[in-house]
# Entry
Amino acid sequence: MTLDQLPLGAAARILSVDWQALVPEEAQRLRALGIEDGAEVKLAYRGVFGARDPIAIEIGRMTVALRRVHARAMQVEPARVQVP
# Structure
């Protein structure tokens, strides 16, 4: 599944990013923010109008706003629930 398909409030791990689908400057900015393979993210917000942009994700202690086109370039797997 891609990051834009993740349910609101769900946590996931980024499996891969299609860097070729992004403008090089945007890809560089996302890498600088820690968005890369293996990063753990949580979908915090999804826009409500039209294209439902922007999408906000929590990564570490940051909240980062992304466009849906960026989120579509990221393959994720939902986080596994740990049973105590």
About this structure: The chain has a mean pLDDT of 90. The chain has one domain: 3-78. The helical segments are 24-32, 68-72.
